[in-house]
């Protein structure tokens, strides 16, 4: 028998056609030729046998007499080749370990066709039916191409295919793509995979994974399911019956709890401002003519500002795994943001109602509009009442109207500035700069864009464009309010200086008096500092919303900004009152500490070990965090209890009951002691001794305030007393000015003042125990 490498039928082995059994002579000859690696073809009256070509093998176990049955089998791609004619065996020859025959080069006809396996594969083992097995932690989308590394971008690898890691979300283009990938995985794991062109590859791009805002909200896997309570893109939308708290979806509380919480918050705000407004009518006869409302608002402003910044920081840097204790502090400070949809979630009360980011913006703008409108209506009604009051003289009515206008301005501007930070952040969160592009895969061109603050809102379409007009109006408002305030204060800076000297209240300066809480606790030359403080809050809590990158460098930048501001504040010391200065310094220091905690906390996107995160949850760390973040309010609480102790100690000597007595327990804040200590610290008493102008309360005012007696001075006595007081002040001002102009001797006046003043409301501070000693006067 001659093997013919030229495969010429003229020189091939010809066997006459027969229909005999394998046991016949002709059948035995055919079986023998098959065993020797010859394939048969039918031609006319003969069976023509040719040797199996290169790149094939003959499996001698396949014995058949049927015509047109292929005996020569091509070597599959991968680790197989055949360099012999009529090669007989159970399979082709194997390529050396770490080499393979490419899919487009099959079948392998020589060992030289076996090339090194591509990148990402294991080269120490036999290739098999692929381009070598993938390395640990790698996956493939084609049996005969390289493998890609897992462990980044939310991909997890198992059995050479990629799946979605828990804590990440992706979306398939359509269901057919997902089914096609499932079929590829099934073929990939088969012992004898199908090697047709459609089966050896997944021809489409895998979906792009996105890290979820809350890792527990995304279950991962090929289907990318969301946990209970989450839905929508990146599993960032709360399902019905859930409310959002720092990107986490919590079950809605009961309706009775929501109503009770809302009522309590409303009652606290209503009672506080009612008492403050009522108390304001009784001005305290103290240096600068300060009143309780102004002093209380200055402290309340610092307290509210600190917790607003704390809440805003955790919202902006939500991609950081903050310690649970710090999240708890921010959660309870959320009420200071005055977001009604958080205090009383409407979608929990009404399941069919859905509020989004624009709804939050509308609510905060409505609060501002209601505050302005209600104040305008109140002012109009009060003005009409005053003008129609016949018991008032004509010259008294303008003063009463001016006083009422001052109260209206004060309340309106305080509400606007309390809500300013929340208004700014909610406005910034709906602008186009705060949108995030979410592509289903890297090849998608028309990707969807969503608000990072609310993934239920698409940044596309006519609806969004129409709502964006409201955001632009709000942008104009948040830019106009501080600029207008600054211009107003700048224009009336002389009036501010006069007000700081205790003689600035009058008709025509109502706007300045309304903005008094902005400069009330600052030195005259730093009257603008509140606008700098507002800029710091905006940068820390809202400015970084527009950046949009989840990087440790941005919290580092915020840390640097807070630290530099703290140093500058400590150097300038713009606040007059020592206690308020300590309160503000403490709030800045705690903010720097919080940012430092965030800078060293774990960022899930960085795939860093959990060791640091475990340290952050330690009991000691929780105590330190809670202690630092409650230090600001503790300063006020401690001051209150010190006052309360002194008050009750004096009250026991002469017990009395009155509404004024009870009010002193509610709104003391130790203002009198703090302000007199502030006079000592700032040498205000020195200036008073130089000018001879020391504000002293009248006996009638103290007696009337104490409630011990009630009487009214005649109009002539009052006018004469006011005229004498005015003449006395003008005389001393002229003398002081003359002394400053003609001073030739340098004075060195040392003053040490010790004041002990328990707030005894029955006789007020004038009847309280006071020891004032001037130790030295050196001229």
Automatic annotation (TrEMBL):
<feature type="transmembrane region" description="Helical">
    <location>
        <begin position="467"/>
        <end position="490"/>
    </location>
</feature>
<keyword id="KW-1133">Transmembrane helix</keyword>
<keyword id="KW-0812">Transmembrane</keyword>
<feature type="transmembrane region" description="Helical">
    <location>
        <begin position="553"/>
        <end position="571"/>
    </location>
</feature>
<keyword id="KW-0472">Membrane</keyword>
<feature type="transmembrane region" description="Helical">
    <location>
        <begin position="302"/>
        <end position="322"/>
    </location>
</feature>
<feature type="transmembrane region" description="Helical">
    <location>
        <begin position="623"/>
        <end position="643"/>
    </location>
</feature>
<protein>
    <recommendedName>
        <fullName>Tyrosine-protein kinase ephrin type A/B receptor-like domain-containing protein</fullName>
    </recommendedName>
</protein>
<feature type="transmembrane region" description="Helical">
    <location>
        <begin position="257"/>
        <end position="278"/>
    </location>
</feature>
<feature type="transmembrane region" description="Helical">
    <location>
        <begin position="361"/>
        <end position="381"/>
    </location>
</feature>
